[in-house]
Amino acid sequence: MPSMEKKMPELASQATCLGCHACEAVCPTRSITFQGDGFFTYPLIDNDTCIQCGKCEKACSYVRGGYQKELEDVSQTFYCAYNADAEERAKATSGGTGGALAQHALEQGWLVCGAAFDEAMRVKHILSDSEAILDKIRGSKYLQSDVTGVYEQVREAVKEGRQVLFFGTPCQCQALVASLPASQREAVLTCAIICHGVNSAKVWEDYVRHEERKAGKKIVAYNFRAKDKGWGPYRSATTFQDKQTIIRPSWNNLFLTWFGHDYICQEGCFHCPYRIEKRAADLTIGDFWGVEKILPSEPTRAGLSVLIASTNKGKDFVNKVPQLVLKEVDEALVLKKALKGYVERRSEEKRQSMILRRKAFEAEYAQKGFDFMAKKYPAQTYWTRIIHHIRFRLRKLGIG
User: Fold this and answer.
1) CA pair distance 106, 132, nearest whole angstrom
2) At a CB cut-off of 8 Å and minimum separation 6, what does 142 contact?
3) Sequence-distant (≥ 6) Cβ neighbours of residue 3 within 8 angstroms
4) Which of 93, 275, 308, 376 could form a disulfide with 284 if both were Cys (CB 3.0 to 4.6 A apart)?
5) Residue 239: what are its φ and ψ, rounded to 5°?
């Protein structure tokens, strides 16, 4: 008699999983949960309830090799963009483009979905048609957002006849699309951020508790990109329950230091299939680095966004946003400047070296804990930064 052994689905491994939760969202028997005791959680299939329908494999970004649709014929339009509301632009990470898009969506009666801090300073995706969501989702969050259940919420909202503007990483945008029936996708507009890679939510929680212990008070707000000195300098702002706000440069911020060294990045991000020129989300937004070379007359201190429309749906939407200032720019220049570092792939040798270093960091972290790692891998102080700069200049001159 032939074997009746179950053939279980094959999902991305820990080395290639992006943590987008698409597989979990499409499972009809809820047989997939995300679990783990390290920096990240990964999909685990319950063998007893899995019916081998294959939906999870079809939804998985890694298994299907990246984007769900062919991108060769995608015609993209590139803009320099910013929010006409100076106050909103000042609060935003770059040009306030995301806020303008969200505001317009709400005014049209849409729901908006994006990443927000909760009361415990964890980052989760939320869905709402209230203007209160604008303050909650504003600004970059340099860590992995919890999207558990949110794709299902969007799906239910669309069933009820609602339209949704969804903000997320490229893999989260495609995970949402993959979780929707084809008949529902037109009701959702996806807006992807230009992503460097997501950092560990566990390390972030440890960092928050560490900062709270040092200060002896609770953190109630955090800004990864404070603009007290304008758009260019990377500066973070930590606000405590007594309203005190501490602003420090990124090189003096421990979490951002580890982020900059790729110590706490999801390993799958090193193999990201979305790190390409053609963008599959309806819209893509991010900092317009290098804009001074493209639009030299455009003031940059307040922040400027790059905005890419990859579908007619996306282009039609942005051109109807009254508070959005748009200047169409040349594709080649955007790819050369704003997207250069997010498209060019490191050599395989360099990438493997970074992955090994990251794995070693995670293993030591698991064994020794946050406080030990904070001492072994500290952020720079003003004096160590000066010394580092002097040594760098000497090496450039061939001395030392």
Assistant:
1) 11
2) 196, 198, 199, 224, 255, 256, 259
3) none
4) 308
5) -110, 130
The DSSP bridge partners found for residue 328 are 79
146: left (phi over 0), alpha (psi -120 to 50) or beta: beta
Structure tokens at 292: 């001074």
Q: Edge-to-edge strand order for the sheet containing 305-309?
A: 123-128, 111-117, 164-168, 188-193, 283-287, 305-309, 77-83, 324-328
- For residue 221, count other CB atoms closer than 10 A to its CB: 13
User: Which residue ranges of the chain lie beneath pLDDT 70?
Assistant: 1-6, 64-73, 345, 388, 392, 394, 396, 400
The pLDDT, as a whole number, for residue 63 is 77
Long-range interactions of 234-241: CB distance < 8 A, separation 24+: 238/211, 240/215, 241/217
Nearest residue to 99 via CA among 288, 314, 327, 321: 321
Separation CA 237–CA 217 (nearest Å): 15
pLDDT digits (tens, 9 = 90+) for 331-346: 887 877 778 777 776 7
Judge whether 178 and 204 are in contact, CB under 8 Å: no
Cα atoms found within 13 Å of the Cα of residue 215, Cβ hemisphere only: 19
**Helix H or strand E segment including 212:** helix 201-215
Q: Judge whether 131 and 104 are in contact, CB under 8 Å.
A: no
- How far is 246 from 13, CA to CA, in rounded Å? 40
The amino acid at residue 344 is: E
Helix 150-159 vs helix 170-179: crossing angle, to nearest 10: 50
Structure tokens at 43: 């999909």
Find out whether 215 and 240 touch, Cβ atoms under 8 Å.
yes
Return the half-sphere exposure (C-beta side, CA atoms, 13 A cut-off) of residue 328: 6
Residue with tokens 């700069």: 389
Closest residue by Cα to residue 313 from 268, 355, 357, 283: 283
